[in-house]
Amino acid sequence: MVRKITLVLCLCLTACTVGITRIEVLTPAVSIIQTPPPALAATLTPTYFPISTYTFAPVPLPTPVPTIASMPLSTSSGGHSIEPLINHQGGTETAAVFAQGNYAYVIYKNYQQGFSSAREELATLDISDPARPVQIGFQVSLGAESVYISDDYIYVATSRNCELPDGSCEVGLRVHSFDPESPIVRSDYNWLQGETQSGMSFEIAGGDRIVYVATSLGGVAVMDVSDPDAPVQASFLEGHACAVAAAGKYVYVLETVDWNEWYVRVLDVSIPTAPVDVGNSQTFEWLKRGADPNMIVAGNYIYVADWFGLHVMDISDPTVPTKVGFYATSELARDGAELEVANGYAYLAGVLGGLWVLDVSNPTNPSEVAFYDLQAVVWDVSVAGNYIYVACPMLGLQVLRHVKPGL
Length: 407
Hints:
By secondary structure, the protein is mainly β. It has a single domain (5-403), classed as Methylamine Dehydrogenase, Chain H, CATH 2.130.10. It is 2% helix and 50% strand. The strands form seven sheets. Strands 1-13-14-15-16-2 form a six-stranded mixed β-sheet, with no helix packed on it. A five-stranded antiparallel β-sheet has the order 3-29-28-27-26, with no helix packed on it. Strands 17, 18, 19, 20 and 21 form a five-stranded antiparallel β-sheet that branches. The model is unreliable at 1-72 and 194-200 (pLDDT under 50).
C-alpha cells in the first residue's frame, strides 16, 4: 500500500477531535516512554512498543462481507444519495486533501523527472462553488504527505530521504503561515526515523500548542508548536502507531501488536514532556501489513475504519475504549480505508475505491445510507458541509455531494 499521512489537530474542532488542556510552561527536557512492564511483556512478547499493565482479549472475526463483484456502482436509501460533481486534475498524483470553508488544500506529487525525483506541491483551491474548483495558490513542498489547517497556520506532514544508507528516513512537520494564495513556510522540523520500508504510514494529531507526529514503524513525536518558527520535541513515544487522535487531555494511538492485531492505546498528555499510559481497548485482527486502519475521535466515540468495516468505541470513560458498534464493508476496503466523521455521518473511503456514507447518529448501530464506487484508488478524504472531497492519485480530486433528505 502507498505511504499515507493523516493530519489532525484538536485546536480547531473538525468533527474528529476537541482541544487539549492548555499547557502554560513546557520544559525542554525530552522523555522517552519505551519499556513495558515485565508481566505484560511476558504475556504479549512485543518487540517494539510500550504499554502499561493491561491485558488484551481477542475478538472473533466479523461476519463475511460482500465481495467486489456483488457490489453495485451506487446505492441510496431514505432520501440519501451521492452525486458526483467534478474531477479536478492537478499534479501527476493527487495525494491528500483537506477542505475547510471556501478552500481546499491539496497535495500533488509530480513525477515529470521520473519516479525517483518526485516533487510535492501544496495547492490551494477556491471551492466557494464546489462544482467548479479554481486553483488560486501554489507552493513547492518537498516531501509533503498530508495537510491540515488550524487558525492561522497550515501544518504539513513530510517524509524525505527514505533511501539513506542506514535504512532511516527523515520524518517532519512543516508549518506555513495561513495565506491561501501564498502560504509562507515558517519552520521545517525533521528527525531521522529508523526501520523504514515500503508501506510505512504516518499520522499526525494535536491540541493546544501541541502536535503529535506518528509513524507506523517509529512511534509518536510530541511536538511543542507554541512558537511556529521553532517547534520543539517535548517527548517521544516508541511503538508502531498507525493512527492517532486527541481529545481533551487524552491522546488515542492506534497501534499494532506484531502486525497481527491492532488496539487503541490511551495516554494522558496533561504534561506533554511526560505522557502517561492510562488504558487501552481490546485487540482486533490485523488483516495484512501495509493496509493500515484509520481512526477519528468525535464526541464520546472513537471510529476506526479497517479492512473489515467501521468499528465504534465508547470513550465515556476515556481510559477504557469499549466497542459498541460495527458496520461491515466490502472488499473495496480490504487494502485499508480513509475516514471522516461529520454531522452525524461517517464517510469511509476504501483504498480500492468504495465510498460509504454511514448514519452514526446511533453509534451502536451504524447504518448505510449511500454508497458510491469511485472505481479508482483512494488516498484521502475530507468533508466540508454536504460535499465530499476525495484524493484519487491517478484520477485527481473527486468532488461529490452528499444529497440528504429534503435538500
